């Protein structure tokens, strides 16, 4: 899935401040091989130093994606090992990614699915806590009490699944609002604890689309 990348260089921030900004207003700092090697990133970078989502604990991307390639400036890398906090607390521009959009139209779950697949990419999946937090912020802007997710129950096989075929490892179900029956789909509360709830898929709610 290709994410839109946005450079923010007018607000110089520390790495932590940049990460918090991206998660509040977009999705996260830029991460992963596809984004960092892309022509779009090279154009945005334009020979300037920019924050990306990689941090050392050991090194990993802050959105949890796999870190399996190496493209270090070794002088900077060794300097970071010797003085870890120098770059962490300095101010650089940074690149954010935003690949989720809240559609403020009221549609049934199936209508929302077709809309996302026709105009964007798909209904959104939530596979980790960080993404849950991002979507909670966006959900507060919904015009309906719930927002559809790409979460569906198959009564034939008897389990919930993401329509994007991603594994349900992380979950945030409201245990009192999870019903395992046919014609049910998953949504997130707009307010309160913003847990996942199962709703009859003929309800009409706003919905989240993931973008190409």
UniProtKB/TrEMBL annotation:
Occurrences of domain C-type lectin (ranges): 13-72, 104-210
Highest taxon listed in the record's lineage: Eukaryota
Listed Gene3D superfamilies: Mannose-Binding Protein A, subunit A
SUPFAM superfamilies attached to this UniProt entry: C-type lectin-like
PANTHER family: C-TYPE LECTIN DOMAIN FAMILY 20 MEMBER A-RELATED, C-TYPE LECTIN DOMAIN FAMILY 4 MEMBER K-LIKE-RELATED
Protein name, per record: C-type lectin domain-containing protein
Source organism of the structure: Neolamprologus brichardi (Fairy cichlid)
Taxonomic lineage: Eukaryota, Metazoa, Chordata, Craniata, Vertebrata
């Amino acid at each position: 899935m290709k994410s839109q990348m946005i450079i923010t260089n007018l607000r110089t921030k520390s790495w932590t401040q940049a990460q918090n900004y991206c998660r509040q207003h977009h999705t996260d700092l830029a991460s992963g091989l596809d984004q960092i090697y892309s022509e779009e990133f090279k154009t945005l970078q334009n020979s300037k130093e920019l924050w990306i989502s990689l941090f050392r604990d050991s090194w990993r991307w802050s959105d949890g994606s796999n870190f399996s390639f190496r493209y270090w400036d070794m002088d900077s890398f060794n300097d970071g090992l010797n003085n870890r906090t120098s770059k962490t607390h300095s101010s650089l521009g940074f690149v954010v990614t935003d690949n989720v959009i809240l559609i403020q139209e009221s549609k049934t779950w199936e209508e929302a699915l077709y809309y996302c697949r026709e105009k964007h990419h798909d209904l959104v999946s939530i596979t980790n806590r960080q993404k849950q937090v991002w979507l909670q912020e966006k959900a507060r802007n919904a015009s309906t009490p719930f927002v559809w997710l790409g979460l569906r129950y198959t009564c034939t096989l008897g389990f919930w699944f993401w329509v994007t075929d991603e594994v349900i490892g992380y979950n945030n179900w409201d245990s009192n609002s999870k019903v395992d029956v046919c014609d049910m789909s998953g949504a997130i509360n707009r307010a309160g604890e913003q847990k996942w709830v199962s709703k009859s898929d003929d309800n009409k709610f706003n919905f989240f689309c993931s973008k190409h």
